[in-house]
Fold this sequence. Notes:
The protein is an alpha/beta fold. The chain has three domains: 3-243, TIM Barrel; 249-294, no CATH class; 300-461, SPOUT methyltransferase, trefoil knot domain (Alpha/beta knot), CATH 3.40.1280.10. Helices cover 31% and strands 15% of the residues. It has twelve helices and 16 strands. The protein has helices spanning 36-46, 76-92, 149-168, 183-188, 203-220, 256-265, 274-281, 320-332, 350-356, 371-383, 423-428, 446-461; strands at residues 8-10, 13-15, 20-21, 52-59, 96-102, 130-131, 145-146, 173-178, 227-231, 310-315, 337-341, 365-368, 389-393, 399-400, 410-414, 431-434. The strands form four sheets. It has a seven-stranded parallel beta sheet, with helices on both faces. A five-stranded parallel beta sheet has the order 3-4-5-8-9. A two-stranded antiparallel sheet has the order 1-2. α9 (350-356) links the parallel β11 and β12. The model is unreliable at 242-250 (pLDDT under 50).
Amino acid sequence: xxxxxxxxxxxxxxxxxxxxxxxxxxxxxxxxxxxxxxxxxxxxxxxxxxxxxxxxxxxxxxxxxxxxxxxxxxxxxxxxxxxxxxxxxxxxxxxxxxxxxxxxxxxxxxxxxxxxxxxxxxxxxxxxxxxxxxxxxxxxxxxxxxxxxxxxxxxxxxxxxxxxxxxxxxxxxxxxxxxxxxxxxxxxxxxxxxxxxxxxxxxxxxxxxxxxxxxxxxxxxxxxxxxxxxxxxxxxxxxxxxxxxxxxxxxxxxxxxxxxxxxxxxxxxxxxxxxxxxxxxxxxxxxxxxxxxxxxxxxxxxxxxxxxxxxxxxxxxxxxxxxxxxxxxxxxxxxxxxxxxxxxxxxxxxxxxxxxxxxxxxxxxxxxxxxxxxxxxxxxxxxxxxxxxxxxxxxxxxxxxxxxxxxxxxxxxxxxxxxxxxxxxxxxxxxxxxxxxxxxxxxxxxxxxxxxxxxxxxxxxx
Length: 462
């Protein structure tokens, strides 16, 4: 017997063969409730002889539907509508029935495909969408609402509640949908996820919410039934999510030196594609890349509150290389921390990590949504007797940088590479300083400007 037609056990569920009917959106539900079409569609597929049948993407809450016609499982009515469909399948077919649980995120509230698939405004039967960040799926679409702590908890529980309902319906297994650009994929992808809290930035942070959802579903569903997760192979966009950061194909054998290092350290050996190794290491001949555990993100309150305070704010940087270069300069000149504010390039982007030449792991780097947390921290420091000054930088500043006193506790404000400091930071700055430029160039690269100001601060403090 070929492997394709041999049985396969997944926890306590045994498939009679390995042919699986994949989930296929039907856009034929009413308010999330299964219709007679689902009885015909799923019933016919249940008689196909396949070993497993997976229902279409099933929304865990109304706002998680791709379109108003999506199937759902979020209340007693949507659960009851599926009951006769599953009962008919159990009566007439011996097939494992699984369900794909989904939330569309910023791809929700759209017209059905055969009517264009465009986003539906609220005035035409749509609803506000939700996502990791306020970034629309396509230009011209309404921006989604970033999920706050309460929203994350609600979505997580919606997945768990749907899992419990699926079990009551007799579903044999679940697949958590984290692919195709929908909500959980949006968290995984640095293209859609530009958060600066514990759910954004590094790969580990971007994986955090999808894994929390998976754990909630796994805990809510019987242990003897399988739960899987679907992820996309690639974003097809540079710097996007790529599954090979989790699962890596084989590569040529390691040299004796590399193998001896692995044997001595006892580290787990994970094979990667040579192309990925070269990109991460920025070196074609690299054999080993050390992946280290990161400590919890530093907090402003942990910075030293003394007269030697010298922190750098980089406002909305767009280039990873500049982020890494600035971090390297800040470390070289003994700065207390680098604070990155607003929607910004990821400091853990491989280009930023390489440009920092290791300083990223030696200096506190704090990511914040905007000026407000920094200004609150500065106000608290001043109230405690520490006279922190906010020093903005601009080619049109009112004072020459070498004429301004930088010997006291200071926070240096460096603007975006193209737009400079935001209006909020300009208004908050106690002074704007300029770097004298005598050549043809009208301004300096942001990281270079930070280096100059850092040097001047250290020079004055000697």
